[in-house]
Design goal:
By secondary structure, the protein is mainly alpha-helical. The chain is 48% helix and 7% strand. The chain is built from 12 helices and 7 strands. The strands form 3 sheets. It has a 3-stranded mixed β-sheet. A two-stranded antiparallel sheet has the order 1-2. It has a two-stranded antiparallel ribbon with strand order 3-4. The radius of gyration is 18 Å and the shape is globular.
Length: 271
């Protein structure tokens, strides 16, 4: 317990430091994970929990060497991308660039714009119908878009006062306690990363956003990052928050920024 308390104090300034710059926040984030897993290279955090546990890593690599369960879904997403006219929307004409650009802070609307948010707007424009936010078509197409950017690096920019405010709100949510269990995102995925919760090993928040949307065995299918946020809130018995709401988009903005300079990966299987 003493070691855990020391670690929390070491990274704790992130919670209270308003308007700290992204580079400083990320350095503290990375240094924390180095302190608990000194033998894991920064680049390996694209593999999430599989960077921590050898047995899980072996299973993960066996799945990738075979026919990954998400392969058909991603291929279908590519066909749907064209079918629904996403290639006709300016923001999505270059899928790889779109994945790298988002999320970003839009000065005109003073709001964070996510990749899935742009996809929903494009789908409405092209079809006159609404697109879901968490699974199904949006997850398949978003995964295909991300695959086009595999090998590129996460590069979230926070360079204006409005962007900083949105980032700070996302950071506050990430570290804020909530729900009947009175826990934060950071409790599981920063302070206790690598520890067991029942039979599962808690994944590190560093690198979380490099492999989204993800295929989870628990879901038996694909889901967006914000679907995962919703699941975590449910696990904490916290009040649900709608996907693609301002709160969730600000959380994603902060969370993505913490993985800056890690490579986007097409290896999107998780338990």
């Amino acid at each position: 317990m003493k070691k855990i308390i020391t670690t929390v104090v070491g990274i704790g300034f992130l919670v209270g430091a308003a308007s700290a710059d992204v580079a400083s926040d990320q350095k503290a984030f990375i240094d924390h994970f180095k302190s608990i897993q000194p033998n894991v290279e920064f680049a390996d955090y694209t593999n999430g929990v599989y960077a921590y546990d050898a047995g899980s890593r072996d299973q993960f690599e066996e799945i990738l060497d075979g026919i990954p369960p998400y392969e058909d879904a991603v291929e279908k997403g590519g066909l749907e991308f064209v079918k629904f006219g996403f290639n006709k929307c300016d923001a999505l004409k270059d899928p790889a660039a779109a994945r790298v650009k988002h999320p970003y802070f839009d000065e005109a609307t003073q709001k964070v714009v996510t990749l899935e948010g742009v996809m929903k707007a494009c789908y409405l424009k092209q079809t006159g119908k609404k697109l879901g936010s968490k699974k199904g078509k949006i997850a398949r197409m978003s995964a295909w878009i991300s695959d086009q950017a595999a090998g590129e690096k996460v590069n979230v920019k926070v360079d204006t006062a409005g962007a900083q405010a949105a980032y700070d709100e996302g950071k506050a949510f990430f570290y804020g306690k909530r729900g009947q269990f009175n826990m934060s995102c950071a409790d599981c995925h920063v302070y206790y990363a690598g520890k067991k919760a029942r039979a599962d090993i808690l994944s590190p928040a560093l690198g979380h956003t490099t492999h989204v949307p993800m295929y989870r065995a628990k879901w038996g299918g694909m889901g967006t990052l914000q679907r995962r946020y919703g699941g975590c809130l449910k696990n904490m018995r916290a009040k649900p928050i709608s996907a693609q709401s301002e709160t969730m988009n600000n959380l994603e903005y902060f969370h993505q920024a913490m993985s800056n300079d890690l490579e986007i990966t097409a290896d999107r299987y998780r338990k």
